[in-house]
Structure prediction request, 86 residues.
Amino acid sequence: MTEEELGKQNSEELKKQLHGDAEVKENDPEFSKSASGFFDLPAGYLDKDGVLHKKIGLIEMTGEDEDILSSGGGSMLDKLNRVMAN
Prediction:
């Protein structure tokens, strides 16, 4: 399997995890092919239970997320919590 095919397969898996069985169109602003997908973490992430995670799924930020982060007032932690809950 080529790297491009693997990337497309990973993108499809991420779409299913994020959107369930709902059909997602290729031009859906919530899922951009260019900045979304599964990525390998070079050293991994060790969670509080001692489980090492080597892959991460990322999606591109929306305009609303960007507005939250660039808004004045409030701590960066509060802004990040709002983005993750968005």
In short: Residues 3-85 form one domain.
